[in-house]
Amino acid sequence: MKRDAGFTLIEVLIAMLIGTIGLMGTIAVQQSIMSASKTANDAAIAMRLASQKMEELYSRSTDTQAADGLSGLLPLSYLAGAAPRWWPTDAGYQQVPEYVDSQGFFLRDNNGFAIPPQPSEVGRYRWRRQWKVADSGSGLPYVISVIVTYSNDVGDPKTTRLDLERRKSW
Q1: Which residue, 102, 146, 108, is CA-closest to 127?
Q2: What are the two backbone dihedrals, phi and then psi, of residue 151, each rounded to the nearest 5 degrees?
Q3: How far apart, in whole angstroms, are the C-alpha atoms of residue 146 and residue 160?
């Protein structure tokens, strides 16, 4: 007896199963690439936000000690060895993070104090930024630290930190 040319139903189903398994593997790889890309993007934004604040603080240069007390880093600093004071603060002068979006816009109330985002804004303002300035003493530099914390999709906190010495010009 001669067999007709063609495929049986079982052969077609097995071929479809093998193809489906291959496609599922491709989808899994694609999802992990997209997740890694998002994580790298969030880390790059955190670094940019930390650099932005670092540049802002570093630019507060003054030529005299008196001017430094008015518009320089002295009002933001604490003496080395004392308890660190992180900025910004809320209306009760408690240390709180500054909630920042990817463009660098941050949330403040009408008096200029840092406030948390509304529930509808949590996704946009998911980066939290804080900074401190340590005064190493007379003739010694300020040490500026900026920390940006954010959470990835599964809620694990990630932190980016920058530290820099700023020499006193007086």
Answers
A1: 102
A2: -115, 140
A3: 8
